[in-house]
Specification:
By secondary structure, the protein is mostly beta strands. The protein is 3% helix and 38% strand. β7 (137-138) and β8 (144-145) form a beta hairpin. The longest helix is centred in the first third of the chain and has 13 residues, at 42-54. It is found in: Membrane. One of its GO terms (molecular function) is calcium ion binding.
């Protein structure tokens, strides 16, 4: 369709048709009218012009001067539709006048011959002629005859060939006194159309005979009124009021503004775009609010979610505009409204950490804390921070949080999880809140001994007050609380020779001391002590065996004093054993007196090496403790004044792949490793 109807696409009998017309156009616009049923040539149009200029008399025979154009033979009947407004054209009013050609072929050799048309005695074939824009044409006597209704350049046309009995047409349906049809079949509208009043007009056209009887039809004619942008968008309210909680989730709408436009929403004319054109106050030139340009939904920006504070600015004013045409046309209509927003304090806040006493005997579930969303209707749930085999908490739809079973601090001393508030669609309303639960300790664990029997050693010549060793006990209750403080007390000594009370134990550390200097290995080589270890509610007995050993009066001796030079790559792996050393001690074997410990006392200030001792053989293993990027060379020498002292040299070279090259060094760094042998302190502190 065009703006004013179909264009030259209809011919034949009456049939249903649909036309689209823009609203608001001028009156007397032609929608469609009869057109030629044959090809429309210039000759035929000139013939029609000739007829119209001659048709000022009432005679049934009109002279016709044919102009030679085209080659098609013009014969048969010529039907001229009356246009109704030509009041002086009495023969043309009403039904179509049929004139029959009575002369020779007008396009023959005598093309300028004047002949005449006469009213038919009987007709053969009808030729319909398309109406033209209505220029005023001169009538007989020099007067000006009014023309037909003006037609648009895109005026549609339709050719009907009604029954021979039909002489006029009738229009019915939703005409609204706007649509009219003339007897010659010209359909037009006499008033401007308004889509907002009626978007579609359903009409019917019937063909009538001379007696007004329907001989064909009715057929439906549908007029669709096309929209133009002739309505301004209007907000439903001149002022909106709303509120938002601080720290609300950004992008979550808390209010809407709405506008209407009577134009067709399926066209750009009715497509509305919203935008915020002003925010007061605008702190630091930052927008705290945003609007969905299609729905009018107002929400917080990320900055607004983080920075809104009712204590600083409890209210804000927005100026919001709406434009039609999608806001993309300079001829768009617009409207504005104001929005007042109150900022409310946020009550969606994490509660303080909760303490729950372990192994409580109270009935479960027990309420421990609560959370509340800012508005009623939220759905609450809990989410674990770490996956647990059992999650002993729940939340009800009031936001109350419960523990569902007894907790054991020794199994897990703290829990962290999240409380989530969602809407009815399970979409989060804000950020989750972290809930922290600490399990409070009670004294429900007795002290335990680190081993069935603790073995200590003491030399028979040990001085009074010297430390012999320490009894280690444990309490699984919380450290640094009264529940885990342990006390030590000797409750029995076996044998009690030469007397009881030979040993002391520190009350809170468990360290044993020699109380009397009366030890003789040949008389009593071993003592057994029973020690009570207690906290404020529980007591445990631990057992200590004290062995009396010989006096440590022998010096450890290295098997050799010179272990030569060692060369190793700079990228030697940490933990690599680079040297094995051996020393012996003549004191009592397998006692603290003969146990040897090795240590580096000089030449390794940066701690690149370490020595581990085999407790069974007293063999020492020198290992790389950390890498040393600096190459150095040491000279081996033996110091005869240091008993039990070993000196050896260590030289670093390029790495195992041969990539490093230290030839460019201008000097050699000297380093000497001095290893002292020290008799190991026995478990009795010797």
């Amino acid at each position: 369709t065009t703006g004013y109807g179909q264009e030259e696409k209809f011919s034949g009998p009456l049939k249903p048709m649909t036309f689209s017309i823009f609203e608001g156009q001028g009156t007397n616009q032609i929608i469609f009218q009869v057109s030629l049923t044959k090809e429309k040539h210039t000759a035929a149009r000139n013939t029609l012009d000739e007829i119209l200029t001659k048709a000022s008399s009432h005679s049934s025979t009109l002279p016709l001067r044919h102009q030679r154009e085209g080659r098609q033979r013009l014969s048969g009947e010529v039907a001229v539709r009356g246009l109704g407004r030509h009041r002086r054209w009495d023969p043309l009013r009403g039904a179509a006048q049929v004139l029959v050609w009575s002369g020779p072929d007008p396009r023959g050799p005598k093309g300028n011959q004047r002949d005449s048309l006469r009213a038919p005695g009987d007709s053969s074939r009808g030729i319909s002629v398309r109406g033209r824009r209505g220029p005023e044409r001169g009538a007989a006597g020099g007067g000006a005859a009014p023309g037909p209704p003006p037609a648009c350049d895109h005026a549609g046309s339709s050719a009907f060939k009604a029954s021979p009995l039909a002489v006029t047409f009738k229009l019915t349906g939703e005409t609204d006194d706007i649509f009219q049809i003339q007897p010659d079949g010209l359909l037009y509208h006499s008033k401007a159309l308004d889509r907002e009043t009626r978007a579609v007009h359903k009409l019917q056209v019937s063909a009538l005979d001379a007696h007004g009887n329907t001989v064909e039809g009715p057929v439906p004619i549908t007029i669709e009124v096309k929209d133009i942008n002739d309505n301004r968008p209007v907000f439903l309210q001149s002022k909106y009021e709303g509120s938002v909680r601080q720290n609300s989730r950004p992008g979550k709408p808390f209010m809407y503004v709405n506008a209407t436009d009577l134009d067709d929403p399926a066209t750009p004319n009715g497509q509305l775009i919203y935008k915020i054109i002003m925010q007061l106050p605008k702190v630091n030139n930052v927008m705290y609010f945003q609007i969905n340009n299609k729905t009018g939904a107002i929400s917080l920006t990320l900055a607004g979610s983080q920075e809104l504070d009712p204590l600083k600015n409890p209210s804000y004013k927005l100026v919001v505009s709406v434009e039609d045409m999608g806001g993309q046309n300079e001829h768009s209509f617009s409207d504005t409204t104001s929005v007042d927003i109150m900022v409310k304090a946020n009550i969606w806040k994490a509660p303080e950490p909760v303490e729950i006493e372990e192994n409580s005997t109270n009935p479960y579930p027990i309420k421990i804390t609560q959370v509340r969303w800012n508005e009623p209707g939220a759905l609450y749930s809990l989410v674990e921070k770490e996956k647990l085999s059992k999650f002993p908490f729940l939340i009800d739809q009031e936001g109350d949080i419960y523990v569902t079973q007894p907790l054991d601090r020794e199994e897990k001393d703290a829990y962290v999880f999240y409380a989530v508030a969602t809407d009815e669609h399970r979409k989060p309303l804000a950020f989750p809140l972290q809930i922290q639960v600490k399990v409070k300790d009670i004294n429900d664990n007795p002290p335990t001994c680190s081993s069935t029997v603790t073995v200590l050693e003491v030399q028979e010549n040990e001085q009074i007050g010297n430390s012999i060793g320490t009894l280690i006990a444990h309490d699984m209750d919380e450290e640094n609380t009264i529940n885990s403080v342990l006390g030590y007390r000797i409750v029995d000594q076996t044998p009690k020779v030469p007397r009881d009370g030979l040993f002391l134990v520190q009350a809170y550390s468990g360290m044993f001391q020699l109380a009397l200097q009366s030890l003789r290995k040949r008389d009593t080589p071993q003592y057994n002590l029973t020690v009570e270890v207690s906290d404020k509610d529980f007591k445990t007995l631990c057992f200590v065996q004290i062995n009396i050993i010989d006096i440590n009066d022998q010096i450890p001796i290295f098997e050799k004093s010179d272990y030569g030079n060692l060369t190793l790559p700079e990228d030697t792996a940490i933990g690599t054993v680079i040297l094995t050393i051996q020393a012996t001690d003549a004191d009592e074997p397998h006692t603290g007196s003969s146990k040897i410990l090795y240590r580096i006392t000089q030449g390794d200030s940066e701690g690149h090496l370490e020595i581990e001792t085999d407790p069974e053989t007293n063999t020492g293993y020198v290992k790389v403790k950390k890498s040393n990027p600096i190459p150095y060379c040491v000279q081996l020498k033996f110091d005869p004044f240091l008993h039990g002292c070993l000196i050896y040299a260590l030289e670093h070279t390029k790495n195992s792949e041969g990539k490093a090259n230290f030839q460019s060094l201008q000097r050699v760094v000297q380093a000497t490793y001095v290893i002292f042998l020290q008799e190991a302190q026995s478990s009795l502190g010797i």
